[in-house]
Amino acid sequence: MKITDHIKNFAGATQFTFEILPPLKGQSINALYNVIDELMEFNPPFIDVTYHREEHLYKDAGNGLLEMKVIKKRPGTVGICAAIQGKYKIDAIPHILCGGFSKEDTENFLIDLDFLEIDNVVALRGDALKNETYFKATPDGHNYANELVGQITDLNNGIYLDEELQNSHSTDFCIGVSGYPEKHMEAPSMESDIHFLKKKVAAGAEYVVTQMFFDNQKYFDFVKQVRKEGIKVPIIPGLKPLSTLKQLNMIPHRFHVDLPEALVKEVIKCKDNKAVKQVGIEWCIAQSKELKESQVPFLHYYSMSKSDNIKAIGREVF
Ligand code: FAD
Does the C-beta of 311 come closer than 6 Å to ligand 1? Predict the structure, then answer.
């Protein structure tokens, strides 16, 4: 079922949803099933599955030179989505990127999803590769998520890359995109970031999922500003509970989001990561309860494929 239809069925009761990562190459899907099994008591209408593009690794070739290897550490997004839909009979939403995909790769990826009866996709640009300073599109790929959304919308209208194809099947994907309550790190201003968010919606995006935030006011202000710019699609809040001391620096550095001073103070007082995890759970419960009161259709948790803290939050909130 499309996310927009799940939202139409929303009768004022916020639903629990979450995101998982494909396992590292070499691991089985069973660990992921254990995570999902633990969270099924909250009846998630859908689960998002992230996509991880290739990485360029340099290995010692043994002759004084370095050899470059291109590897994907977490393959399997599409297979996991198909497996989840088959096993749990709920929607699985693959993320799809501009990075690492030519337009032809994108088209073929979408054809697989359509054959597997996957109705939803989250369309993203992706980050720069670790050895690049700025994001670089793959040859004949897309530079920005709005272009990717445009290609998916074309396919929904039966327009394939090969213009000579006749009577082509129209796909029917519901397209989600990202939004940044604290603006995307590369955007010169919030206004500019929202201007490009509007382009994604104009290209066919039907809902937005936000980057994690730790201060609900940032989400409420973002929604207000986005609505002022005429963007009407649902904006699903994404939440991540803090779980380690290291994240105090890692989260602002990697995701360009602020941590409220009150949260930082509580975390600094903690003796170990077990205590940090508890602080993270309590903070996230408070955030969740306030967002639920404001009648968001979903609370979307970034689980990092771990269930214990998300389960503790779910039990207090749902
Ligand atoms: P875009 O919307 O393309 O925006 C990128 C930047 O360019 C922004 O600063 C924007 O303001 C600007 N911009 C946008 N369009 C234009 C334009 N036409 N012209 C000029 N400037 C423009 N990454 C993964 O690798 N895998 C995942 O599964 C994944 N899932 C995510 C899920 C969510 C909910 C979120 C919030 C992020 C996710 N990411 C994922 C991270 C995401 O790929 C990065 O944040 C990336 O840097 C930006 O992607 P985007 O789709 O937001 O980019």
Answer: no
